[in-house]
Specification:
Length: 240
């Protein structure tokens, strides 16, 4: 189970100027247009940012999560939200009466980009064990129930990208963290993809692929075909 503990207050992944630059070939770092145009593009940026989260399958802006996880018996454990910024707390049980905190020295972050942790003691397998005596088809030895696993490991962590430069240590971050930076960490190609999506919605809200004046012919983008914005975000999609 995944729970959002602290939501990001930042909701957009590009600026109005980014979209204006695409629409009007402007090199200005400030949005130039009428108040109505800027307001409309601002609303489209919010929609494009929500689209980006849906397309990649996770929230891109940094948030704090609480997640219960199932062990597979190996030395590695992967959190569902990434990139990992910091593990705040880790417990070996979800039951408050018996949970024991696991010290940060007892595990390592193997890869921040994939949010993979490793532990020399391993992450015990949590599949349900049943006795063969109660089910003749299982033979003479105890067996694990297929597809039935408990999720006893409980992690609280911060994951996602910083959307703007800041010296704030919010979301439980510390200046001593390996991932600490005062600058924004949202990749430039994500910013560009969201700006392109907003520009697409502004200039072509109906998704028309081609038009002709003679005899009035209109065609639409083929279902399943990748737009430029989708192609730019493809590498960030979550693979289950």
């Amino acid at each position: 189970m995944l729970t959002v503990c602290t939501s990001s207050t930042d909701g957009t992944y590009c600026t109005c100027a980014d979209v204006m630059n695409i629409l009007f070939n402007s090199t200005s770092t400030a949005a130039v247009g009428t108040t109505q145009e800027i307001d409309q593009i601002g609303r489209l940026i919010a929609r494009a940012s929500r689209w980006a989260d849906q397309f990649v399958g996770r929230h891109l802006a940094m948030q704090v999560y609480s997640e219960t996880l199932a062990g597979a018996g190996g030395r590695t454990l992967t959190l569902s939200q990434y990139p990992l910024a910091r593990v705040l707390r880790f417990f070996d049980s979800t039951a408050t009466c018996e949970a024991t905190a696991i010290c940060s020295s007892d595990y390592r972050v193997e890869d921040y980009d994939s949010a993979t942790l490793s532990r020399d003691a391993g992450w015990r397998w949590t599949a349900a064990l049943i006795s063969a005596e109660t089910c003749f088809e299982l033979g003479l030895t105890p067996s694990f129930r297929s597809g039935e696993r408990s999720h006893p490991w409980l992690a609280e962590y911060a994951a996602g990208y910083k959307l703007a430069a800041s010296t704030s240590t919010c979301h439980g971050l510390s200046t001593g963290d390996d991932t600490w930076t005062t600058g924004a960490t949202l990749p430039d190609d994500v910013v560009q993809a969201v700006a392109m999506r907003a520009a697409e919605m502004y200039s072509n809200p109906l998704g028309v692929a081609s038009r002709s004046v003679g005899n009035l012919s209109v065609s639409y983008r083929i279902a399943g075909a990748r737009s430029a914005s989708e192609a730019a975000l493809e590498r960030y999609r979550k693979v289950d």
